[in-house]
UniProtKB/TrEMBL annotation:
InterPro entries: Split_barrel_FMN-bd (IPR012349), TR_PAI2-type (IPR007396). It holds the Pfam family FMN_bind_2. Signal peptide: none annotated. Gene3D superfamilies: Electron Transport, Fmn-binding Protein, Chain A. This is FMN-binding negative transcriptional regulator. SUPFAM superfamilies: FMN-binding split barrel. It comes from the Bacteria. Transmembrane segments: none annotated. It comes from Bacillus wiedmannii.
Amino acid sequence: MLDFVQKNSFGTIVTTKKEKPIATQLPFGLTKKGDDYFITGHMAYGNPQWRTFETCEDVLVMFQGAHSSPSFS
């Protein structure tokens, strides 16, 4: 999984505000400190999602690999 995240660092972070999901797509970094790994990134101050980090119970970060669209003939 660590290799996948490093190769596919563009992800979607999902939090909630008043039980409604808020999602933002961002580039992420993966940092190791001791035995622990941390996902890091930067969110613009103008994005209201950053204010949810202190109050939401869970944070979900999703990473996707490359994909292609099927060609219908």
